[in-house]
Design goal:
With 218 residues, the protein is an all-alpha fold. Helix content is 64%, strand content 0%. It has twelve helices and no strands. Helix 4 (50-65) crosses helix 5 and helix 9 (129-153) packs antiparallel against helix 12 (192-216). The chain is flat, with a radius of gyration of 21 Å. The N and C termini lie far apart (65 Å).
Length: 218
């Protein structure tokens, strides 16, 4: 690609291609320059460093997610549940999507404001603003952490990494000393959707209990 046609958008798009091909570790300045047909130094006219590039990639994912927000008329718990499910689905569309997303700085101001809707729903339900923010962040952090682990256990084609299969894990566990751990191995890398919803529901139940305590004390 001639340098005159190079743009930030083209660099970010090429980085997503590298992500799909080899995961987060495949995104290097040398590999990116090779894909774009330029010298590595040309990239820095458009993204000042690789951290900035990852921020731009995360922002593109977030903008895609915020294009289908939860129903503002739904209850606070339904909104959180829907947002969590949508975030997970969005991250799973990309190889190493959660690793890429974790700890990034969103570069688009509108994407930062995407938490306004859940904060509105939570404060309207009776949570203080601080607790509403922490509730939202708890869901956000749960989804990121869950998907990081999920994407480690499952390959890009959604098949289980052989190392996590019961027949590979259970022989390593002394059944006499750790009988429950041995038995639990049958569930370790299965039912990813059900495990995810179980965690979401657990968070919701905890927030409901907290909200009830707050209302009882006022």
């Amino acid at each position: 690609m001639p340098r005159k046609t190079l743009s930030r958008e083209a660099v970010v798009t090429a980085a997503f291609d590298l992500l799909a091909e080899g995961g987060l570790g495949a995104i290097t300045a040398r590999a990116l320059a090779g894909k774009l047909g330029v010298q590595p130094g040309a990239l820095y006219y458009h993204v000042k460093d690789m951290n900035t590039l990852v921020d731009e990639m995360a922002t593109r994912i977030m903008l895609d997610l915020t294009g289908t927000p939860a129903d503002p008329g739904a209850s606070w718990d339904d909104q959180l549940r829907t947002s969590a499910i949508q975030l997970r689905a969005g991250l799973l569309r990309y190889r190493d999507g959660a690793k890429l997303f974790a700890g990034t700085h969103l570069t688009d101001d509108e994407s930062i404001g995407s938490m306004e809707q859940p904060l509105t729903a939570l404060t309207a339900a009776g949570f203080g603003l601080r607790e509403a923010l922490w509730a939202w962040q708890s869901f956000y952090n749960y989804v990121i952490g869950y998907v990081i682990e999920e994407q480690e256990r499952f390959r890009p084609d959604a098949t289980v990494d052989e190392r996590y299969r019961p027949e590979a894990r259970q022989p390593r566990i002394d059944v006499a000393r750790f009988p429950l751990t041995h038995a639990a191995g049958a569930y370790f890398a299965t039912d990813a959707d059900e495990q995810f919803i179980f965690g979401v529901q657990t968070l919701i139940l905890g927030l409901r209990a907290q909200l009830a305590d707050n209302q009882a004390s006022t």
